[in-house]
Fold this protein.
Amino acid sequence: MGDLILDTNRFQLLFAEQPSSINVTNNGPIDGLATDQSQLSYSFDFHGSHFAIVNTDPVGKDAHAPAAWLSDDLAAAQARGIQHLFVFGHKPAYTYFYGSNAPVAPATLPLPGKYSGLDNFQADRDAFWGVIEQYKATYFCGHEHIFNMAQPTGGAWQILVGSGGSPFEAAPTDATLSPTDRYYAWATVQIFRSGKVRITAYGFDDKFGQTRILKSVVF
C-alpha cells in the first residue's frame, strides 16, 4: 500500500518537491503489537514540517496509538531541526463529551464504556499524550462526528474535525449543545516565517448557512 499511502510522485507534481526523511519502520515490536505496522503508522518531512500518521486501531489493540514509535519518530525529527510537528490519527486521545453526554460536574467522569477514543485505556492514552506534549506536537483526529478544538491538558492542541459530512453525533433535540456542535467543519493550518502557527476552523450549520470561523488559535 506504500504507493497509495505516500505518493512521492504526486507530491512532486503538486508541489515541485518530494517529502523527505520518510519513516515506515514497523513499530509493532516496540509497541507490543503482533502485526506489521509499517504501512499503517508512518511519517515524513515536508517543507520544514514533520507529519506523522498513527494507526489508532491495530489488530488486537483497538484504541491504542504507538507511543513508543511516535516518541522515537518525533525525537528524530526534532534532532533534524524540524520545528513544527503534526500528528494525525483516527480516534481522539480525549473524547469530546457534548450536550447531555457531558459530565454533570467538573469532577465527574463518565462511566466506563462511554469513551470514544484512546481514553478507553487511560494509562496508554496518557503515554501517547505525554509524547504529544513533550514534543509540542498538534494532534488531528476524527472518529466522533463533531467539531471540537481543545487543549486537554493545557498545552498541546487536539483538533477534532469529524463533522465533514457524516451524520452528526449530536442530535438537534439536545438543548444543551454548544453552538458549533452541529456544524460541518474543516480546519486550515498556516505556518509563518516567524515560526508561528495559526489553525483556523471554518464551518456552516446544519441548515447550510453561511460559512464562518468557528475557532482560530495561534501558537
About this structure: The radius of gyration is 18 Å.
